[in-house]
Specification:
alpha/beta; 25 strands; four-stranded mixed sheet; 19 helices
């Protein structure tokens, strides 16, 4: 069996100008990065304004497990399947972070015969977008400390500097530290730390900005610190927004690549699905909608995090209206939700599978709550038995949706044609009646409680007085109309990552809230969510190397 990277390496790629031609993008509007990837010009994107939009399809999933679900693989495969049945479709996904690529999760370019390519470059430096975001983030951090060093005219309280530094790598030793040691020449010592780049507000801003002017406005609205009177200090107060925008000029342009079957793919942006909204950029999605009849995109983690944030943050803020949704599930993952250990997943266990289907049922109901029609994609594994597959289909049928077996990992677009046909029918049928979960004018705490009760099925939401007071203060300052971005474990509907299935009546404790004023949402942090992950005991980096031919091995 070939590995993902072996399959990608032998793929027959088209020159990127030919891929662009499929979408009628003129060669002069593409800025090639080599022969197989390119940036789409801002002028061309502006020229698309009057064109009608295609149909937007979301691919989401059940809660992730160590057994694997294959959401990105299904997203890519679905676009190949749609094109195979004669529909003009484009895929829009996020760029992978170096942290997971060298850590535990691996890359995010799909897998098997449903990938975007060049796989190695997408999972590594790609077109340099993440490096530009890291640089813009750290420029702002440097300008804060420099301002304090040269007299602190803005009266920044160094105890209340909220802007940390960033790097695109997992490094637990940088989470919390003391900076500016070594004497007067190095500034004023203070507690600080690093977040991973995908958790940066700059990343979220780039992915929500409509154009360059909107990008600069949002960057200027970042709150970096507070004065002694507790009034906020913005990035624009430091005159940092212009230079930050300059660093992001090229990063704002969507990246065009291709699938293994040479279909167009936009891979752009990559906000953390916990601390941020976990979706690819608005500008890439909107550009694709002008160029194709169907745009298939995904949202991070399971539907309780990814789909909810896609609907309540990205679609709300960008004015997008999804036409259909796909929930990816695997027999293996459902058995884990039913109590089966990972080492026992190869054995048939219909009873455990049926118990685990409660997780799938909850996600089906949740997506329907947003008024979006749903279909289930069963991502096939060779260990799946006919009885287990039949049990999933029967369960889905009893919940009023189709569950379709998909073999795209092994067969590419041919193995997912049935799902592609069903998705096209749903999108063309105009069944969607999209509506966010809560209105803009609902108080912030009530928004948090609404997500927790209606999506997580929590029995109670608790928060200290300081958290509630902070939310009220933000409402008084004019931020009450923002959506909430829940930072919660991806492994469970609850805040306990070990509580699988579909738990009811649990308590969601909000331990901290953060205002992402530039991105335009309020983050509610629950459980043990970290913005700088650590490496596992045996990171993937130990098995990544160049072979004698100069090819990368071990990347997945």
């Amino acid at each position: 069996m070939q590995s993902d990277i072996e399959i990608a390496r032998v793929a027959r790629k088209k020159p990127i100008l030919e891929v662009g031609a499929v979408l009628a993008i003129p060669p002069e509007e593409l800025a090639p990065y080599g022969h197989d990837k390119a940036k789409v010009g801002a002028g061309f994107i502006r020229s698309l304004g009057e064109r009608p939009d295609g149909s937007l399809i979301l691919v989401t999933a059940i809660n992730p497990t160590p057994a694997g679900e294959g959401k990105t693989t299904t997203t890519v495969g679905l676009v190949d399947g749609l094109n195979r049945i004669g529909r003009r479709a484009v895929v829009c996904i996020r760029e992978p972070s170096l942290g997971p690529s060298f850590g535990m999760k691996g890359g995010a370019a799909g897998g098997g015969h449903a990938q975007v390519i060049p796989m190695e470059e997408i999972n590594l430096h790609f077109t340099g977008d993440f490096h530009a975001i890291t640089s813009a983030h750290n420029l702002l951090a440097a300008m804060i400390d420099n301002h304090v060093y040269w007299g602190n005219a803005l009266d920044i309280d160094v105890r209340r500097i909220t802007w940390r530094r960033a790097m695109d790598m997992n490094d637990r030793s940088l989470r919390q530290m003391v900076g500016a040691l070594g004497g007067v020449a190095n500034g004023f010592p203070r507690e600080c730390g690093f977040d991973i780049t995908v958790a940066s507000e700059v990343m979220a801003i780039l992915c929500l900005a409509e154009d360059f002017a909107d990008l600069e406005r949002r960057l200027g609205s970042i709150i970096v610190a507070y004065r002694r009177d507790k009034t906020p200090v913005f990035a624009r107060d430091l005159k940092a927004d212009g230079a930050m925008a300059v660093l992001l000029k090229d990063a704002m342009q969507p990246n065009l690549v291709q699938t293994l079957e040479n279909n167009p793919a936009f891979v752009h942006g990559g906000p953390f699905a916990n601390i941020a909204h976990g979706c690819n950029s608005v500008i890439a999605t909107k550009t694709a909608l002008k160029l194709a009849d169907y745009v298939v995109t995904e949202a991070g983690f399971g539907a309780d995090l990814g789909a909810e944030k896609f609907f309540d943050i990205k679609c709300r803020k960008a004015g997008l209206t999804p036409s259909a949704a796909v929930i990816v599930a695997t027999v293996r993952a459902l058995k884990m939700n039913g109590g089966v250990k990972k080492e026992d997943l190869g054995s048939e266990d219909v009873a455990a599978l049926t118990r685990g289907c409660a997780n799938l049922g909850r996600h089906i109901a949740n997506v329907r709550r947003f008024g979006v029609p749903v279909v289930v994609a069963i991502n096939h594994f060779t260990s799946d038995t006919e009885a287990e597959i039949a049990a999933v289909k029967d369960y889905a049928s009893r919940h009023g949706v189709d569950a379709i077996l998909c073999r795209h990992w092994a067969e590419g677009g041919e193995g997912i044609e049935e799902l592609a046909q069903r998705v096209a029918e749903m999108a063309d049928g105009g069944q969607a009646d999209f509506r966010p979960l809560y209105p803009d004018d609902m108080p912030l705490m009530e928004k948090i409680e609404t997500v927790a009760s209606k999506i997580y099925h929590a029995g109670e939401v608790t928060a200290d007085k300081g958290v509630r007071d902070q939310l009220k203060a933000w409402e008084e300052q004019g931020y009450g109309g923002l959506p909430v971005c829940m930072a919660k474990t991806q492994y469970s509907f609850s805040t306990d990552p070990n509580l699988r299935g579909a738990p009811e009546g649990h308590v969601v404790h909000v331990r901290e809230v953060r205002l992402a004023a530039g991105a335009g949402f309020v983050v509610a942090i629950t459980g043990e969510i970290m913005t700088m992950p650590g490496l596992p005991s045996s990171p993937s980096a130990e098995r990544i190397f160049l072979n004698q031919e100069g090819h990368i091995e071990g990347l997945f």
